[in-house]
Write a structure and sequence with these properties.
By secondary structure, the chain is of the alpha+beta class. It folds into two domains: about 60 residues, Phosphorylase Kinase, domain 1 (2-Layer Sandwich), CATH 3.30.200.20; about 160 residues, Transferase(Phosphotransferase), domain 1, CATH 1.10.510.10. The chain contains seven helices and eleven strands. The strands form four sheets. It has a five-stranded antiparallel β-sheet with strand order 1-2-3-5-4, with helices on one face. The longest helix has 18 residues. The termini are far apart.
C-alpha cells in the first residue's frame, strides 16, 4: 500500500483511486470515527463516505484536491476567504443537535460518558477543525479526521481551532496569515470563542504530542484568556 498521509495519530494509505485506508497507530478502534462520519453524512454535512471499519482500520472515500492549508500556502491572499469558510463549517456543524451516543465534553475539555456529563446545549463538536482537516475538492469542502468528535458547547470547538492555530510555532508572515484567517472565522462561526478558551486550552495541554515550544504558546494563550 502507498502511504499518502501521516498525522500525529494515524497513517493514510491509498487503496486505488477511489478509496483510502486510515489506520490508527495507537491501537484505538476506528468504529467511533466511522459512526460519527456515517451519521454526519446522513445529516448532509460534508464528510467522506465510509466504506468499512474494523479494528484500527477505517476505509473511506478518497478525496481529490488540496487541503485548505496547502491552498493557503499557494494563495495566501485568500486567508480571509478561507477563514470565512472555516467559520461556516463550524456554524453548519454546530447547528446539528448531537446524538445521545456521542460522548459529552466536560467543563475541563475532556470527554465523559453521556450519562455523566451535562448535555445542555450539546452540539456536535469536531475539536480539531483546522485547515489541515478541510479538503477542498471539486465538489466543495469536506471535513476529515473525526476521531475527537464530542458533544458540547460550540464555543469550545471554535476556541480549539483558535488554540491549535495560535499554539504552533510559525514564522512572522505565517502568523499574520493565521491572524487574518482566525478573525474571519470568528465573524462567520456564530460562536464566542472566548467563552470556550478555558476548556480548549486545558484539552490542548493534555495532548501528549505537543512539543515543549507548543506547550509554552498554549500556556501563554491560557494566561491571556
Amino acid at each position: 500500500m502507498e502511504l499518502i498521509g501521516r498525522g500525529r495519530e494515524a497513517d493514510v494509505y491509498a487503496l486505488g483511486e477511489d478509496r483510502v485506508l486510515r489506520r490508527f497507530r495507537d491501537g484505538r478502534p476506528a468504529e467511533h470515527e466511522a459512526r460519527v462520519m456515517r451519521w454526519l453524512g446522513a445529516q448532509g454535512y460534508p464528510v467522506p463516505a465510509v466504506h468499512e471499519a474494523a479494528g484500527t482500520d477505517l476505509v473511506m472515500e478518497r478525496l481529490h484536491g488540496p487541503t485548505m492549508s496547502e491552498a493557503l500556502r499557494r494563495r495566501p491572499w485568500r486567508a480571509v476567504r478561507y477563514g470565512a469558510l472555516l467559520g461556516r463549517l463550524h456554524r453548519q456543524l454546530h447547528a446539528l443537535a448531537a446524538p445521545e451516543w456521542l460522548p459529552r465534553l466536560r467543563a475541563d475539555g475532556h470527554g465523559a460518558d453521556t450519562q455523566e456529563a451535562d448535555g445542555q446545549g450539546a452540539a456536535v463538536l469536531h475539536l480539531d477543525l483546522h485547515p489541515d482537516n478541510v479538503m477542498l475538492t471539486g465538489g466543495g469542502p469536506r471535513v476529515i479526521d473525526w476521531a475527537n468528535a464530542h458533544a458540547g458547547p460550540p464555543e469550545v470547538d471554535v476556541a480549539m481551532t483558535f488554540v491549535i492555530l495560535r499554539g504552533i510555532v510559525l514564522r512572522p508572515h505565517e502568523r499574520l496569515l493565521v491572524r487574518g484567517l482566525l478573525r474571519s472565522m470568528a465573524r462567520s462561526s456564530g460562536a464566542d470563542r472566548r467563552a470556550g478558551m478555558p476548556a480548549a486550552t486545558q484539552r490542548r495541554l493534555a495532548d501528549p504530542n505537543l512539543t515543549r515550544a507548543e506547550e509554552g504558546l498554549v500556556h501563554r494563550l491560557q494566561r491571556r484568556g
